[in-house]
Structures are given as structure tokens and as C-alpha cells.
Amino acid sequence: MIVSALLTSVGINSGLCILFFTLYSTLRRQPPNFHVYAPRLLAEKRIKESGYFHLERLLPSPGWIRRAWELSEDDLLSISGLDAVVFMRIIIFSLRVFAFAGIIGVFVLLPVNCSGNQLAEFNIANISSDSLDIFTISNVNDGSKRLWIHFCAVYLVTAFVCYLLYYEYNYVSSKRIAYFFSSKPQPHQFTLLISGIPVPPGGSVSETVDSFFTEYHPSTYLSHVVVRSTNKLRRLINDANKLYRRLMHLQAEPTWAKTKRDGFLGLSGRKIDLVDHYEKKLEDIEENLRTEREASLAGDEMRAAFVFFKSRYGAAVASHVQQSENPTYWITEQAPEPHDVYWPFFHSSFFRRWISEVVVVVVCILLTVLFLIPVVIVQGLTNLNQLETLFPFLKSILSLTIVSEIVTGYLPSLILQLFLKLVPPVMVFLSSIQGHVSHSRIQKSACIKFLWFTIWNIFFANVLSGSILNQLALFLDLKNIPSKLAVAVPAQASFFIAYVVTSGWTSTSSELFRIIPFIGSLLQKCCCCCNVKNTTDEFEVPPIPYHVDVPRLIFFGLLGITYFFLAPLILPFLLIYFCLAYIIFRNQFLNVYEPKFESAGRFWPIVHNSMIFSLVLMHVLAIGIFTLKELALASTLIVPLPILTLLFNEYCQKRFLPNFIGYAAESLIKKDREDINNPSMTEFFGELVTTYRPPALSPQQFSNRDSHNAPLLTHSDA
Amino acid sequence: MIVSALLTSVGINSGLCILFFTLYSTLRRQPPNFHVYAPRLLAEKRIKESGYFHLERLLPSPGWIRRAWELSEDDLLSISGLDAVVFMRIIIFSLRVFAFAGIIGVFVLLPVNCSGNQLAEFNIANISSDSLDIFTISNVNDGSKRLWIHFCAVYLVTAFVCYLLYYEYNYVSSKRIAYFFSSKPQPHQFTLLISGIPVPPGGSVSETVDSFFTEYHPSTYLSHVVVRSTNKLRRLINDANKLYRRLMHLQAEPTWAKTKRDGFLGLSGRKIDLVDHYEKKLEDIEENLRTEREASLAGDEMRAAFVFFKSRYGAAVASHVQQSENPTYWITEQAPEPHDVYWPFFHSSFFRRWISEVVVVVVCILLTVLFLIPVVIVQGLTNLNQLETLFPFLKSILSLTIVSEIVTGYLPSLILQLFLKLVPPVMVFLSSIQGHVSHSRIQKSACIKFLWFTIWNIFFANVLSGSILNQLALFLDLKNIPSKLAVAVPAQASFFIAYVVTSGWTSTSSELFRIIPFIGSLLQKCCCCCNVKNTTDEFEVPPIPYHVDVPRLIFFGLLGITYFFLAPLILPFLLIYFCLAYIIFRNQFLNVYEPKFESAGRFWPIVHNSMIFSLVLMHVLAIGIFTLKELALASTLIVPLPILTLLFNEYCQKRFLPNFIGYAAESLIKKDREDINNPSMTEFFGELVTTYRPPALSPQQFSNRDSHNAPLLTHSDA
């Protein structure tokens, strides 16, 4: 890539960012857009969707930037929970790392790279005078003493990143403990989820659980709730929901559409009132639901139960000590928050859960490694000749230069982007059939899957050209990894600089502008003006998709760390990206996203591990590069660095990881003692049993002749 | 190797075995040899070393074989503990596996191999008509359909081994639980070892421990003992022991040797009575010891303590739940048995223990991988020319053909054997500085180290010729491992058949004959007839060196599994080896070895894992061989097998491994309840505190003017 191309890309994307910022600054102040740009404030009734038109509202105002900037960490904690705080720590951590690396990169490494003349000397064919490659390490002369500067930079930045990683791990870990101490008594702290209950022949699950825990945990056991199969119920509720929506639509339509003939194709026979018809159907389903619900409450026990304890420590003890002589029975795990439970999982036995986990892991690996094959095939379909053969009527359009340029230039990348958009939902789906018991764990698992997917399909697939088998073969030949990467990675420097600018900048500012929800709301307004009331009823505040955003942030961190000494030019662009992300995500936490559950920063270890991976990858690259540049001594002297980094990681895991898995006896007992004198605890324990109840089992009402248009308060499964 | 050479080797080694058996059958009945062949019975006073001479005692008697054969598992359990039972299960498991594999190998695969004519057809230079290679898979024609028989055999034997592995894991696991239930209350069940105690400035360790456990475990905490530094004490005791022994020797010597002049070189000056002199010295040291012991009891606290609980479950709970918010403080682990504690370890903090562990792992890997380099260098010194240059006076002897043959033929292998003998003690030493708290864990850790050492230095170093770097390079090039191994491994088949015969058979029968202790006792009898009394005083029953014998058994298992379809001829020899081992080790458990501690079969997972490793190695070989033999389909169809085996292993670990780490709440509570009505428990708890006392702190007496020749009952540190 040449400098002018990069500048063009920067220009276009800066323009886009400014456009998005301006549009956002204007549109967010219009009441009809409140449910796109401030659903959170709307739900909390801090703003109203209706309001008078003010001219000044058309002027863009940057006030939101100030508010986002001034938001303190404690405020963020109180409005969006610890997960949001930890999410922001990823950005702060990256900003610090790349500010430090940026200073070294831009003021030390960049001049050194430019001063070399390796590329000019060897007069490599495709290198024009203003190629971006002269800013990379490739331009430093082979065997030059100046490479020792790069060597020092690698050591320095590694040390700095490790120091920051330790600091952040420590910080997040202490935040987690502080959060635990400041939390009110929460049901999941006192609850364990037990699976693999061995029911003796003729016994019931409930009796077995009761006798086991009164036998072995008499002093701490409180009570339990057996999980019951609600699959049939859920299906009925889904039917009822569909019918209910149809009825609502029907009510909004003119009267002639409400009747229909019951004969052949609705043309003959007697007229029937559709509203009446549907309502009767709905009542039937409701009757079914009621009987089914009663049946569910009585029978259909799964071999799993929520067991409640009198103290947090009691629950922790039961979850840490192996309960049964057969470790596949009485499997305990800390229960998720009540509204976080993923109910459909409870079918599976230990063995089936384990098998499905194995299968999902295999499918994920295959999906990650082979993803590009179908994409490339579909992209191949978009070449002009094939399109013309498939759709002959397009021939005249495709012969226009501009159209053909767009088709050949943008369509393939558009297809890739579309496929990529499909990946996170697929990963969530795979995680959900893996046997996780809560939405938060599904999300964490999907986050890890998507992270490795991104690293493979964006980093490695771009760096390593050739077929998938060739790419995999590289990793089977451990010895040659450094040298092969050292050739391949710097060659893609300009691609990744452009990637930061296009994908990074634009995706962040479109996150602010919320393109898809905005377009969705526009379409809704145009098409079904009559249904506005209905949509506000069903209006929901979205949660932040951590499984999409965390991997993205980490991936840009990986790019920065691996490229900082190869092509320091990437660093300023990354810094801008993280600055944008800093402001924009704070703003979104304030106005848009509402936490659905709280994992108390449990995903930080993922961030830590991926940073360690990035560092080691960078070291491997450095070993390869210094060998390639004929500086064997430097190459050898880098070798201790990955080993030290991995040892550092090992130490961090021993020092901090246990705090991300559970809480210490010390904390649990202290917290329990605080509650002893709390008069509200008896009430809390009384309510505990009812908290873990599948939503399908709580009574809902759909058919209500008297208040069709009023918001149905009992309707909770929409 | 040709058939006749193998037959010669078998002949020589069978002869040796018969010789050892006959010698043993004769010598074991002679009272002076009782402390070599039946130290256990001697120590238990079931036989007496003195006795009348009977002519019939010179006749070899095979009665011991019957007794060893008839020994039931319950008897073995009662006399040698669960470890011995589990050790015998390794042999029984191997016997079953190789009986099954042997039938398939000898009656199916061997005829198939012989019926091929690949080797004859291609008329390979060095193949004579009676080469052992015609019994191997190499002789089957390339692409022959008969290779599918080998393919089926691989699947069949894998399935059988997996079934047996599951069965044995289950059996050993249930034995462990049964052993726990049948055991009397033991101090280590109620005790935790706490390290990393954070002592506040100005506080003492004892107070800190007391306040922590009364605060957080008020209902189960009983008391504690702080570990005190006894290094200085141990040094003093060592000095005292040396002096004591010198005194004993002196007493046995004639009177003229008991005096010495105190002047120049003992020639001038006044005569002094050496006995008196040493006794005074000993008394001084004893005085020192007394004051030092008192000082130790008062001060010099280490940051570690044994904490006693009122119930097993209480101890287990405290050990499973993370105690402190900082996971590097209050580290808990189940205490070892009191006499199993390895006292010198207590110096190290969490960080130092971790670092020393890392260092030991690195040293072990280096030792394992680079071991052969110095050995080969030393072996190189034994070639004739160099010997003649170094020791010119040997020239005349070395010119004899027989001497030169022995020097060139046997000396290198002798040197290798000597170096190999040094390895287990080195591994024990490395494990002991790794930070393990008990002798049993040191032994287990040394066992794992020695196992991998054996696999690398006997299997891989023989299979892969070339330099160490070339060997390592193979493992860095994952893709080519199967094909390279497929070429190298079958080529060494005859070497390993000979290895089973020479090393396996002979080592086992020399284990029976106890060559080294026997020679030692002979030498002792010749040199210091006067000291017989002394040696019987210091006579000690040896424990079985599991860290040497378990890896050896496992290694022969690995040879059998990897070679069974390549060269089935190895199987009959292996079967004979395991039969010998079965009888001999049962006999040794009866007569020779006494357990020093009981790990309750904790080393079984090592056996399980290495068998899985052997299976996967066999599959990799099969993939390589079938590719080499141009049967690509079979090669592909083997691929699922290692994956299934690893999944099976994963399941086994989930199903059984927890039972080898701790006991389930169910078992612990049941056992605790049994003890509630046991009147002896109060006494037991009363004695608990005194059980974990460093041996250096218990009073010992060395100088005792009145009873020099009487066994010193208080002398316990010899």
C-alpha cells in the first residue's frame, strides 16, 4: 500500500466518523429517536418520548461527550454494574499500553526504520518511493546494529505490559471483592445448582435431595426446588404469544379485514369474526396451559435441583467439597442469578452434557478453521462473468464501469462482513447447547469462541496465504513457525493499518450511531404507523453484547502488540481507536445499555490470557525477524522473554485466578456475619424458594376481552 | 538380529534366572542371610537369625513360590498396605493385557507376518534367511489385504486395554474408599498443613493461626502446632551421631588404640584416653542440643503450621475452600502421615516454592533430554586405543582377544547401566527440593520423573538415531512424526525383544536374589566380624522403591503395547517377565519390604495415564506404518482411535480422579459419625498435638557411660 492510499482511507473514514458523530449529536435529541439512542433513560422514565419541537434540537450538541467524559468509575459501577467497569478497564489498559508503545514506536523506532535503505538498496520491484513499507522494520538494513533498538523496545514494552497486566488483574480482583462486600444478600449467593442426582428406584428427586442434604449438611441446608421439565409448557406459551400478537395486529386493522368466510379458500361459507375466532383459540391454549402447568408442578421432575443454604459459606463449602463417592453424581455448582438461568439445559445427564461439550468444541474448531472456505466460494460467485451467466438481465448494468468496480471491489468484502456478522449468534447458539446453565456463562463461552475465531480468521488467515491445509501445516511444523511468520506478518502491515482505520474507527462510530436499530426504527415508523403503541409496549432496553465487543477490543490489542515494533505506524491509529471507544462506550453505558446480569468481571482472565498470547506471538515474531535480519544474537537473546512471560502468567493465575472462580472463606464468613443482625434476612430466606422458578411456570394471561389495548402487565414472556 | 543370537541371549538369561532362583532357594534358608532375604520377618521376630545348622537347609526348596502364589489380596493388604496391592494390580493388569494381545499376536499376526515375502522379494542386502525381521510387520507385502488383520488387531487390543483400564481404575478407586472406611482414626486425616501464614508485624505465628481458625472455623478447629526451624538442631544431631558411631567403633577396638598423644601428629604430648575424650565431646554436644532444643521450642517459628480439626470433614472443608482473599496466603493442604513428613522443606515461602518447582522442572527436562551426551562421551573413553593411551600398562592385557572383546562389548553397556542406576536417586533429590511436604509425595514425583526419563532415554533415544537436536527436531515437526516413527520403531524390534530378556528377566530375578544387599552383607561379614552386634542394632527393614519399580513395569507395558502388532514375538517374553515379577514381588512383600507410609494407591493415575500414552503412541505408529505399507484407507481409519482413546481418558479422569485427590463429603461424614461413639477418640485427640513433632525435637541420648554396649532405646535418629 502506498502512503496516498492510506491517506485516502483515513480521509474517508474520518469523514464517516465525523458524519456519524454529527448525525448522532443531532438525532439523539429528537424525541422519536429516544428509544434508539437513550432506551435506558426512557425505560427509567428520566426522559419522555413525546415532547414539543424545538429548533435548537436540530443543532448538534457535543454535551454528551462532556457527560461521558466526566462519568466517574463509581457512577459507572452504580448504573451499569461491575461488568461495565471491567469492560472500560480493557480500554483504559489498552490506552496506557499503546500510549507507552506509541511514544517508543513513533519517536524512536519510526525514525530508525526510515533511516534504513534496505528496500531502496535491493531495489525490490514493487516498492515505489512512497510505499508504507519504508516505515516498517523491513527497511532496516540486514545485520544493522540499529536493530538492537528494536530489541530493547521489545523487552521494554513486554515489561511494561506485564506490569500493567499485574496491576489491572490486582485492581479488578480487588474490585470484585469490594463488590461482593457491598452487595445486598442475593439469592444466587445462597444457592447451589445440583445435577446428576441419583434417584433410587421408586423414590422421587425431591425426597432424595431432601434426605441427602439433611443427612450431610444438616446445619446449613435450608430447602430446595426441583427443576421440572417445562418444554411442553414453553411450546404452548410460544403458540399463545404468536396468537396474541396476531390478535393485536387484527385489532388495529380496519373492520372489513376482521371477518373471513370459513369455506373453500375463504371465499365461500358463512362469515366468521376473526377476532372472536382467535380469542377462542387463545382461550383454549390458555386452558391447556393451566392444566399443563398444574401437571408440571406435580410431575416431570428433572434430575437437577436448586438447593438453598442458610449461609453463603455453607453453600460454598457444599460446592467445593466433592459430595458423592461417584464424582458424576451430586455435581454441585454455584447457581446463577435467578433471571440469568438458562432453563432449557436441564435435560442432560453428566455423560450427555460432557459429550455435547466435546462435540461443540469440535464443531467450533472446524467452524473457525474452515470458515473461509464457503466464504471464498460465495465470493467467487460475485465475479462479473458468473453474475452475467446467472442473471443475464444484469448484463447492461454490469457493463457500466462504476457498477462493475463496485461489484468487484466491494461485494466480496461485503459478503465477508455479512458472514462475519453471523458468527457471534452462531457462537452463542453453540455455547448454549454446550450445557451451560446461565446466559452469562453462555456469553462468556461465546466470547472466548469468537475471540479465537477472530484471531484465526482475521489475523492468521490474512497473514498466511495459501490453502487452509497449508496454513494448518505451518502450525504442525513448530520449528519453522518463527521464520515463516517473520516473512508473512510484516508483509501485511499496511493491510492491518488500513483495517484499524476502516473496521476499527467506523465500527466504533457506528456503534455510537447504532445504524441497524436506527434503520429498524425508521422502517417501523414508515410501515406500521398504526402499531406504534404496540411497539412501545414491547420496547426493551438492550444489554451490551460483551461477546462481540470484548473480542474486538482484544483483537485490536493483539494487532497493536504484534505490530508495534514491526510497523510502529499502526500505533497512532490504534490510539485514536481506543480514545473513540473510551468516550463512545461510556456514553452507551449511560444512555443505551442496561445490564441483564452481573458476572462481576469474570471475563477479565480472558483479557489477561489473550494479552499474554499476544506478547508471546510478538516474541515469536521477533525471534523470526531477527534471524531473518541476520542478527542471530538478538534472536537468541529474545528466547528467554516468552519463557519469562509465561512464568509471569503462571504466577498471575496462581495469585489472582482463584478470586475469579469463587470467594474466599474469609470474605464469605465476614459477609454472613454482617447479615446475622439484619432483620430482613428472615423475609429474604422466605422468598428464596420462589425465586428459582422457571418463567414458564408463572401464571400469564393472554385473552382478556376487557382490556385489549391496555398494556398486559401479566404478559412477561414476549 | 538373527534368530540364533536371540536364542543365545534367551539361553544365557534363562540360565542366569535359574541360577538366581536356585541360589535364592538355598541361601534364604541360611540364618546368616535372614537379614538380606527376610529382614521383615526378622524385624517382626517371626524368625531368629541364630539357629542350628541343618543339612537339609542346603537343599534348594521351592516352598516360597507356593507361599507367594497362595497369598491372597486381603493378606497382602494387611501386611503391606494398599500401595502394595495397587502395585500388584499393575502386574495383574499387564498380565491380562499381554495374555490377550499375546494370543492375537502369536496365533494370528505372527503367521500372517511370516507368510509375507516383502523382505525376500526385495532381497534387501542385510537380511539373512533366519533374521528376526521376518516375524515383524515389515515382512508383510506392501498394500497387502492381510494388513487389515493388523488393523483389526489394533482396534481390538485398544478396546480391550481401555476396558481393563476402566475396570482397574474402578477397582482401585473402590479399594481406596474401602480402605478409608476400614482405617482406624489416623492423625493425618484430622490435620491440615498450612503454609504462607501472613504474620502481622509484632505478632507471632502461633497467635495468628489461633485467631484465624477460631475466627473462621470455630466449630471444627481443635489446636495447632507451629513448625519450627530445626536446621541447627539437625546439624548438631548429625554431629552427635557421627561421634557416637566413632565411639562405638573405638569400644570394639583393642585397648592400645584407645589412647593417643595430644601433641604434634599424635606422637608427642601426654597420653589421653580417646574414649573419655570423645565422651566428653559427646556430652558437650548433648548439652548444646538441650539448650538448642529449648530455644527451638520457644522461638524460630516458620510461617507454617499443622492445624488439627475435630473431624475429618472439618479438615477437608478447610482444605478445599480458599481461605484468604489473597490465594498465596493461608495455603492449605492435607497433612501427610506424621512419620512421612519431610521436615527440611518448611523454609520456603509460596513464591520460593513456586520458583524452585519451575527450576526443578527445567532441570529435569534438561537432564532427561541431554542425559545421553555425557554417557556417550564417557563410553567413548572406553575404546581400546584411548584406554591404551591413558593407561599404557594395560597394553599387554588389552591385546588378548577375550579382554578386548569384553572391553568393547560390555564396558559401554556397563557404563550406561551405572549411569542409569544413578538416575533414581537424582530424581528423588530433585523432587525433594521441589517443595513437596512428604516423602511419599517426593517418591510419587520422582516416579513420574523417572518414568519419562526411561521412556525418553530407552525408548526414543534408541528408536531415533542421530544427534539429540535431530531427535528433538522430530517432535517439533508434528506432521512427520508418524512416518518417521514408522520407519524407526520396527527397525529396533529385535533390540527391544533382547532388552526384555536381558534387562527385564535378569533385573527381576536379581531383585529376588538382592545381589547388592547380599554382596554388602558378605563384605560386612568379612571385614568387620567384630561389629556384628552393632550392625544388628542398626539393621533396618527396607521399603520398596516404588519410584524405581513402577516406572520399570510401566515401561515394559509401553514396549508391549507399541510393539504388539509390529513384532508380536515380543509378547511371550513379556508375559514371562510379568509372571516372574508377579511371583517375585509377592514374595518380596512377604519377606523383605515393609511399607514406611501409605499413599493408598495414589500412584494409580500415573499408571493409567502412561497406558493411555502407550496406546496413543501405538496408534501414531499404526498410522505411520499403514501409510508406509501403502494402505492409506487403514491409515485414515485409525485416526479416530487416538481421539476416542483420549476422550475415554478424559471421561475416566472425570469419573475417578477426584477420588485419588481427596475423599467425598459422604465418606468423610459417615466415617466421622462412626467415631462419635468411640470412647478412645478423646485420648486420640489428646495425643494428636504431639504427633507432628520434628524428630529433631524429641529427646535423644547419646552419651551413656553405664550401657555402651546395650542397644540405646532412645537413639532414634541413626
TrEMBL record, chains A, B:
Keywords from the named record: Calcium, Coiled coil, Ion channel, Ion transport, Membrane, Transmembrane, Transmembrane helix, Transport
Domain CSC1/OSCA1-like N-terminal transmembrane: 5-168
Record's subcellular location: Membrane
Domain CSC1/OSCA1-like cytosolic, first and last residues per copy: 189-344
Membrane-spanning residues: 6-27, 86-110, 147-166, 358-378, 390-411, 450-473, 553-585, 606-625, 631-648
InterPro entries, per the entry: Csc1-like (IPR045122), CSC1/OSCA1-like_7TM (IPR003864), CSC1/OSCA1-like_cyt (IPR027815), CSC1/OSCA1-like_N (IPR032880)
Domain CSC1/OSCA1-like 7TM region: 358-626
Family from the record: Belongs to the CSC1 (TC 1.A.17) family.
Name this protein carries in UniProt: CSC1-like protein HYP1
